[in-house]
Protein backbone atom coordinates (compact mmCIF):
# COMPACT_ATOMS: atom_id res chain seq x y z
CA UNK A 1 0.00 0.00 0.00
CA UNK A 2 1.86 3.06 -1.24
CA UNK A 3 -1.03 5.48 -0.57
CA UNK A 4 -2.81 6.40 2.64
CA UNK A 5 -5.86 8.66 2.96
CA UNK A 6 -6.97 10.80 5.90
CA UNK A 7 -9.92 13.20 6.09
CA UNK A 8 -9.44 16.59 7.76
CA UNK A 9 -12.19 19.09 8.65
CA UNK A 10 -11.08 22.70 8.08
CA UNK A 11 -11.23 24.73 11.29
CA UNK A 12 -12.00 28.44 11.44
CA UNK A 13 -8.48 29.25 12.67
CA UNK A 14 -7.00 27.72 9.51
CA UNK A 15 -8.64 30.30 7.28
CA UNK A 16 -7.80 33.89 6.40
CA UNK A 17 -10.07 36.97 6.28
CA UNK A 18 -11.49 35.76 2.97
CA UNK A 19 -12.60 32.45 4.53
CA UNK A 20 -10.02 30.54 2.49
CA UNK A 21 -7.50 28.15 4.04
CA UNK A 22 -4.28 30.06 4.64
CA UNK A 23 -1.58 28.71 2.30
CA UNK A 24 0.86 27.88 5.11
CA UNK A 25 -1.56 25.34 6.56
CA UNK A 26 -1.10 23.01 3.60
CA UNK A 27 2.36 22.05 4.90
CA UNK A 28 0.64 20.94 8.11
CA UNK A 29 -1.97 18.95 6.19
CA UNK A 30 0.86 17.20 4.36
CA UNK A 31 2.60 16.52 7.66
CA UNK A 32 -0.57 14.95 9.03
CA UNK A 33 -0.78 12.78 5.92
CA UNK A 34 2.88 11.75 6.17
CA UNK A 35 2.77 10.98 9.91
CA UNK A 36 -0.38 8.90 9.47
CA UNK A 37 1.13 7.14 6.42
CA UNK A 38 4.06 6.06 8.59
CA UNK A 39 1.80 5.13 11.53
CA UNK A 40 -0.30 3.01 9.17
CA UNK A 41 2.73 0.83 8.35
CA UNK A 42 3.65 0.57 12.04
CA UNK A 43 6.19 3.40 12.43
CA UNK A 44 5.69 6.46 14.62
CA UNK A 45 7.81 9.61 14.64
CA UNK A 46 8.08 9.20 18.40
CA UNK A 47 9.53 5.68 18.16
CA UNK A 48 11.88 6.78 15.37
CA UNK A 49 13.22 9.64 17.51
CA UNK A 50 13.53 7.33 20.53
CA UNK A 51 15.83 5.22 18.33
CA UNK A 52 17.94 8.29 17.52
CA UNK A 53 16.66 9.16 14.04
CA UNK A 54 14.85 12.32 12.97
CA UNK A 55 13.27 13.10 9.63
CA UNK A 56 13.50 16.79 8.68
CA UNK A 57 11.88 18.18 5.54
CA UNK A 58 14.49 19.39 3.03
CA UNK A 59 12.10 20.20 0.18
CA UNK A 60 8.45 21.22 0.01
CA UNK A 61 6.53 21.91 -3.19
CA UNK A 62 2.87 22.94 -3.29
CA UNK A 63 0.56 23.80 -6.20
CA UNK A 64 -2.79 25.35 -5.35
CA UNK A 65 -5.57 24.47 -7.79
CA UNK A 66 -8.72 25.54 -5.88
CA UNK A 67 -9.29 26.89 -2.38
CA UNK A 68 -10.55 24.97 0.63
CA UNK A 69 -12.79 26.90 3.01
CA UNK A 70 -13.94 26.85 6.61
CA UNK A 71 -15.80 23.64 7.58
CA UNK A 72 -14.90 21.85 4.33
CA UNK A 73 -13.97 18.21 4.70
CA UNK A 74 -10.82 17.58 2.70
CA UNK A 75 -9.12 14.28 1.96
CA UNK A 76 -5.32 14.13 2.05
CA UNK A 77 -3.86 11.29 -0.03
CA UNK A 78 -0.21 10.62 0.74
CA UNK A 79 1.84 8.41 -1.56
CA UNK A 80 5.36 7.07 -1.12
CA UNK A 81 7.15 7.83 -4.41
CA UNK A 82 10.08 5.41 -4.25
CA UNK A 83 11.89 3.02 -1.96
CA UNK A 84 13.69 5.19 0.61
CA UNK A 85 17.45 5.40 0.91
CA UNK A 86 18.87 8.39 2.75
CA UNK A 87 15.81 10.36 1.66
CA UNK A 88 12.12 9.55 1.62
CA UNK A 89 9.84 11.22 -0.92
CA UNK A 90 6.08 11.67 -0.66
CA UNK A 91 3.50 13.03 -3.11
CA UNK A 92 0.22 14.49 -1.90
CA UNK A 93 -3.16 15.19 -3.42
CA UNK A 94 -5.72 17.07 -1.41
CA UNK A 95 -9.33 16.62 -2.51
CA UNK A 96 -12.63 18.35 -1.81
CA UNK A 97 -15.62 16.27 -0.69
CA UNK A 98 -16.84 16.19 -4.29
CA UNK A 99 -13.56 14.60 -5.43
CA UNK A 100 -12.13 17.73 -7.02
CA UNK A 101 -8.36 18.16 -6.64
CA UNK A 102 -7.64 21.25 -4.55
CA UNK A 103 -3.89 21.00 -4.05
CA UNK A 104 -0.97 18.82 -5.10
CA UNK A 105 2.38 18.69 -3.40
CA UNK A 106 5.61 16.87 -2.74
CA UNK A 107 8.04 16.64 0.15
CA UNK A 108 11.53 15.25 0.44
CA UNK A 109 12.75 14.31 3.90
CA UNK A 110 16.15 13.01 4.99
CA UNK A 111 16.88 10.46 7.69
CA UNK A 112 19.30 12.10 10.13
CA UNK A 113 21.22 10.64 13.08
CA UNK A 114 20.21 12.79 16.06
CA UNK A 115 23.61 12.53 17.76
CA UNK A 116 25.82 13.38 14.81
CA UNK A 117 23.36 15.51 12.84
CA UNK A 118 24.47 13.62 9.72
CA UNK A 119 22.27 11.96 7.09
CA UNK A 120 21.91 8.18 7.40
CA UNK A 121 20.23 5.46 5.35
CA UNK A 122 16.65 4.54 6.16
CA UNK A 123 16.81 2.37 9.29
CA UNK A 124 16.42 -1.33 8.51
CA UNK A 125 13.37 -1.77 10.77
CA UNK A 126 11.53 0.98 8.86
CA UNK A 127 12.63 -0.29 5.46
CA UNK A 128 11.43 -3.77 6.40
CA UNK A 129 7.97 -2.46 7.32
CA UNK A 130 7.77 -0.51 4.06
CA UNK A 131 8.82 -3.54 2.02
CA UNK A 132 6.24 -5.73 3.83
CA UNK A 133 3.44 -3.39 2.74
CA UNK A 134 4.43 -2.66 -0.85
CA UNK A 135 6.51 -3.57 -3.83
CA UNK A 136 8.69 -1.29 -5.92
CA UNK A 137 9.02 -1.77 -9.66
UniProtKB/TrEMBL annotation:
Entry keyword set: Hydrolase
Stored InterPro entries: 4-hydroxybenzoyl-CoA_TE (IPR050563), HB-CoA_thioesterase_AS (IPR008272), HotDog_dom_sf (IPR029069), YbgC/YbaW (IPR006684)
PROSITE patterns per the UniProt record, alphabetical: 4HBCOA_THIOESTERASE
Family matches, as Pfam families: 4HBT_2
CDD domains membership: 4HBT (cd00586)
Keyword Hydrolase applies: yes
GO MF: fatty acyl-CoA hydrolase activity
PANTHER family: 4-HYDROXYBENZOYL-COA THIOESTERASE FAMILY MEMBER, NOVEL THIOESTERASE SUPERFAMILY DOMAIN AND SAPOSIN A-TYPE DOMAIN CONTAINING PROTEIN (0610012H03RIK)
Protein family per UniProt: Belongs to the 4-hydroxybenzoyl-CoA thioesterase family.
NCBIfam families, sorted: YbgC/FadM family acyl-CoA thioesterase
Protein name: Acyl-CoA thioester hydrolase
Native source organism of the sequence: Sinomicrobium oceani
Amino acid sequence: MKTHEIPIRIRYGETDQMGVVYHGNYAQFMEIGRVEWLRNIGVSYKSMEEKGVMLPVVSLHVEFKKPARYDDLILVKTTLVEKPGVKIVFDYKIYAENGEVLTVGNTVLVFVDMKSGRPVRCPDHILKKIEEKMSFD
